[in-house]
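Data availability (excerpt). The following record was deposited with the supplementary files.
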Amino acid sequence: MTRIFSLMVILTSLAISSQVFGQNSEFRYLPPPNISMRIIPVEKNIQKDQIALEGLLESQVGVPTKLRIFFECSEDLKISPASASVEDLKPGKPSKYLLGVKAGNGKPGLGGTFVRMGVEYLPDYDALIKAMGNEEEYPDKSERQSVINGLREAKKTGTRKIDAMSLTIDKSQIKK
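Predicted structure:
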């Protein structure tokens, strides 16, 4: 599942990048991020063989919809819950997920012991297009229009986006 999810993140990012950005320019604008993601340790009472983490999603631009959230970890950990879903993510109303993490039987990943949160969602393309129209922040008209055209095409095709982030865990914090 972890390799498949990682591959999905890479392929989706490439697909959206090729739709949103032209191939002819060395200089490119990026659309503003639609969401922000964090995983933070929290002091919560959960099972004594677990540590508590909180996954946090926040809208940065507009209202992304149809969010599917995935939680994964290196094989030397176990995480619960494995997934969640949210219909929409409104600005100023973060979505929070309490995660229980405990020791597993496998080996750490190549980058060590980690927890990963990923989200697949439908961006708020109208809000992104409006944000890209800001001539002060995006002064190059040609490049700005190229991104807007890519966003319009992605909206027309219903292109979903995948974002992910990881947190390295000190496994000594987890009691067996």
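Summary of structural features: Strands lie at 35-41, 50-59, 65-73, 77-80, 83-88, 95-103, 114-122, 161-168.
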